[in-house]
Amino acid sequence: MKALQPSPPLALTMGEPGGVGADLTLAVWRDRLRRDIPPFYLLADPNFVAERARLLGVDCPVRLVAANEAAAVFDDALPVVALDARVRAEPGRADPANATAVVEAIARAVGDVRLGVAAAVVTNPISKQSLYAAGFRHPGHTEFLGTLSAAWTGVQARPVMMLAGPELRAVPVTIHVPLRDVADMLSEGMIVETGRIVASELRRRFALPQPRLAVAGLNPHAGEGGTLGIEDRTVIAPAVDALRAGGIDVVGPLSADAMFHPAARAGYDAAICMYHDQALIPAKTLSFSETVNVTLGLAFVRTSPDHGTAFDLAGTGKADPSSLAAALRLAADLVANERAA
Q: On the chain, which terminus has fewer CB atoms closer than 10 Å, C or N?
């Protein structure tokens, strides 16, 4: 077998400048050897990064580079690829004036992967409220990345969010949807599409040749035979049957209150959940600091910390960089698995 060529560095976006993204990035680079961090570069305003380093009292040299120069300087300095937009940020406060820079960093990272100068996209947390105030028209990161992927491939695939931790991989079928709207939005086709994407990505990027899926019910006790809601019987069960008929190893619908204990988790590789909190609560409870947000169904690998902007910790030096470190390592692993396959 021909040896694989070294992978390019990862493209890391700065996220919301008033949040902890810069703090985490500086901490991860400083601790890169102990945490086994793969080479990456930060898409940001270099003056903003240097200012945050001074505020934190962190000795971290910042080197302005082109993306294809980042790997060569990573051992000696934090490589920063400059954005066209400038950033002025106060720790702990979101400013819609920075929305242009936030969106530019995401789009540039995807573009760099498309050009082959970056291996994958890793994103620091954004403030959706701040972006909305500036006219951002996507529900969140995941949906915006789906639009960028579709522009790249010409295929409008639905992006799927996975929370991947050391003890659980959990996927919500509906994501940023009010709870009162979930039952009306769910459909057999949506569940089947999600299951197929998850199974495909587990094989291709997670190196699991025969992935096992467990599908949660929507209602208490998975509907209790229809007495506690009919969606489990009329929507979810037919979707499970269709996935099974398509050759996927899947069980469900299962009562969500009994599928996340250790013995239950041993029986599957990913849990397909019906709504945001049904997936994210167990994932974050089991391992908040090591869980990673992965977007499936894209033309590129994308990971992110599983937490938000943590405005209360920005600029204090108290933010835990473990989830960002895990996101960087997982992105490199997913790229390596895909290339090996």
A: N
What would the pLDDT profile of 57-78 be if each residue is shown by its tens digit?
999 999 999 999 999 999 999 9
The backbone torsions φ and ψ at residue 274, rounded to the nearest 5 degrees and listed phi first, read -90, -20
Per the CATH hierarchy, to which homologous superfamily does domain 1-156+298-341 belong?
Isopropylmalate Dehydrogenase (3.40.718.10)
The per-residue pLDDT for 5 is 54
- Where does CATH 3.40.718.10 sit in the chain? 1-156+298-341, 167-286
Alpha helices in the chain (DSSP H): 21-30, 46-56, 70-73, 99-115, 128-133, 141-153, 179-185, 188-204, 231, 237-245, 262-265, 276-286, 322-340
Could you tell me which of 170, 172, 116 has the C-alpha nearest to residue 140?
172
237-245 vs 188-204: helix crossing angle, rounded to 10: 40
CATH superfamily of 167-286: Isopropylmalate Dehydrogenase (3.40.718.10)
